[in-house]
Design goal:
Chain lengths: 272, 342
């Protein structure tokens, strides 16, 4: 009888410590199956004896038979996973939840706004768009982090800075002597470019960020049904049972984590 | 389905035969309270109970349930249902079990629950006594008890036994059952309405009215703040609730440090860290940091959030939360009636 809590084994093909607290893993399923996910979906990653944590896919399904995860050391499980190296295993259940509705993004201008570790799940969509660039119109990316040392995916950032396929803007809350880019909260990036009302916008970042970003989008005339928010909550089961991730009557793990803003803006608990 | 009758003097023999056929979980006395427990002898059975401390959901959704065991990198599913008989479940608790059946089956079927449930034959019971805080007569009136295999109702000389499934019918082979007379059926039906009328507490509005007003009162901070002032955030109201099904998942090592188990335990949305996430160096975010927010969330779950899925409220009026709450602030009747009058 199927037990939805029994995970599958995935082998670590690559493990890079990318910041002081974050590690970037590339994984492949041990049973030879492909992890058949969509950008924005999540999985439960675990180590036996330590526990499980929910994570977003940090790579696009258009890339190889592997997938990426980025784990920030915050507790017992993430701490244990982040001690792993190439050749060792992580146990995964997924894909879970609803990702980005690609059909609603195709054929339109797309703006992705990522704050901090919010770049991990959105990287899945960024790669997807870059791999199928002709399916989308204009593509802009805003990325904000606390400091230059907190920036993730440095190779990607440097590629995006020079790519003709994406208009990339970045900022840090606090610069350092080597930083020559923008300093300020992420909403300051709206001054750098013009956002058309037709733009489909994706937001993922710390809870505090959403309200301010949405206010800016409203100023640009972007309607709420063109805004997609990727939300984080505490999760235990990932299958809509355990109750931890509820936002009013919605379950982030099965109804989300990506929501069309117009469908959840009436929920009082949406931005905490 | 036909109706049967079992004489009071034949009850023990019937139960003894059931015990010899499969484990029987039934109400027994513990000091001055009652609990559902594995029945060792028919003498322990207390069908005259008013309420049990914990609801009978623990028969398939135990407070601590192993989901899988592991040894190094190998996991083994812990789904191993045992055939069992859950005997003497009050009709309000049957309604709650029916709700959990749906909630564990929908979207992603959870066989850790469903397998245990499927292996369980449920004999429901019309209550013979009502507890001090019961209000099951007036809550979710449009939702009927469902999913049980048989219903027993005590009348003067014995029990009217109504099988509802082939498993229920099969049970009658274990006792000296006769066909129930129409007089006995009338008496059973009278007993059912008489006991319902004895519920000491009462909701005064329809499910729909309550659901709408509760949802509309979400932002009435005064109500939720005042109602939760004395809350300890202990979660007792959740733990004793027959419709609560939230859980935590944890791993535990065995002493050998190479094997262990992943298990789930009942969790409670009233506890402080239920919706808290750690953000590492950036600190933590608690999406329901205030007592009032957690208190409100429970009531929203009971009175409105799940209604469209369940066809009624996620509350069956057992009154366990009212009785279990130390500062006595969890009583849904008081909370709902207060909201309705606001």
């Amino acid at each position: 009888m199927n037990n939805c809590f029994v995970p599958m084994e995935a082998e670590i093909l690559r493990a890079d410590q990318v910041t002081k607290s974050e590690k970037h893993f590339t994984l492949r399923m041990k049973n030879g199956c492909r992890m058949d996910f969509a950008p924005g979906q999540i999985l439960e990653a675990s180590l036996f004896g330590f526990g499980e944590i929910p994570l977003g896919f940090a790579s696009s399904p258009t890339r190889k038979d592997s997938f990426d995860l980025v784990v920030r050391t915050v507790g017992r499980v993430s701490g244990a996973i982040n001690k792993l190296e190439k050749g060792q295993s992580v146990f995964v259940r997924g894909p879970l939840g609803h990702g980005f509705d690609l059909d609603r993004l195709r054929g339109h201008d797309v703006l992705i706004i990522a704050g901090g570790i919010g770049l991990c799940p959105t990287r899945s969509l960024i790669q997807y768009i870059l791999d199928r660039r002709s399916e989308f119109k204009g593509f802009k990316l805003f990325f904000g982090s606390k400091s230059p040392q907190d920036q993730l995916f440095l190779d990607d950032l440097s590629a995006w800075r020079n790519s003709p396929d994406v208009e990339y803007h970045e900022t840090v809350d606090k610069g350092d002597p080597g930083w020559t880019g923008n300093v300020g909260v992420i909403t300051t990036l709206f001054q750098k470019t013009k956002i058309t009302p037709d733009t489909r916008t994706v937001i993922c970042g710390p809870p505090i960020m959403y309200k301010f970003v949405i206010k800016e989008l409203e100023k640009s005339g972007v309607p709420h049904n063109h805004i997609f928010v990727d939300l984080e909550r505490r999760m235990k089961c990932g299958i809509g049972k355990c109750g931890h991730c509820q936002i009013n009557d919605k379950y982030v793990c099965i109804d989300g984590p990506v929501f069309s803003f117009d469908q959840i803006k009436h929920l009082e608990e949406v931005f905490g | 389905m036909s109706y049967f009758f079992l004489k009071e003097s034949d009850l023990k023999d019937f139960v003894r035969k059931l015990i010899s056929s499969a484990p029987v979980i039934a109400p027994v006395a513990r000091k001055n309270k009652f609990v559902f427990a594995d029945l060792e002898s028919p003498d322990e059975l207390r069908l005259d109970y008013d309420i049990t401390i914990l609801p009978p959901k623990k028969a398939f959704f135990p407070p601590n349930q192993t989901l899988l065991s592991f040894k190094e990198n190998k996991a083994t599913s812990a789904i191993r249902p045992r055939e069992q008989i859950l005997f003497g479940v009050h009709t309000y608790d049957v309604k709650a079990i029916d709700m959990l059946d749906l909630l564990f089956a929908e979207n992603n079927a959870d066989n850790n629950y469903l397998a245990n449930r499927k292996a369980t034959t449920i004999v429901a019971m019309t209550p013979q006594a009502v507890s001090g805080r019961a209000f099951w007569e007036s809550v979710g009136k449009t939702v009927q008890p469902n999913g049980h295999d048989a219903l027993m109702t005590k009348i003067r000389e014995g029990y009217v036994f109504e099988p509802r499934t082939p498993q229920g019918t099969r049970l009658t082979k274990s006792g000296i059952f006769s066909q129930a007379s129409s007089g006995q059926l009338d008496e059973a039906s009278k007993c059912q309405s008489e006991i319902a009328a004895k519920c000491p507490e009462k909701l005064s509005h329809s499910t729909r009215e309550i659901s709408d007003k509760m949802r509309a009162s979400f932002n009435n901070e005064k109500i939720w703040h005042t109602a939760s002032l004395d809350c300890f955030s202990c979660g007792t109201c959740n733990i004793v609730c027959p419709t609560c099904y939230c859980f935590d998942v944890q791993d535990q090592w065995n002493l050998d440090q190479v094997s262990g188990a992943r298990y789930r335990t009942w969790d409670a949305c009233l506890t402080e860290d239920f919706a808290k996430i750690s953000l590492g160096p950036a600190g933590a975010e608690n999406f329901r940091e205030e007592r009032a927010e957690r208190f409100r969330h429970r009531m929203m779950r009971k009175a409105t959030y799940l209604n469209s899925r369940l066809g009624g409220p996620a509350c069956v009026g057992c009154g366990r939360c009212s009785e279990g709450c130390v500062p006595d602030i969890a009583d849904p009747v008081k909370i709902i009636n207060n909201v309705m009058e606001s």
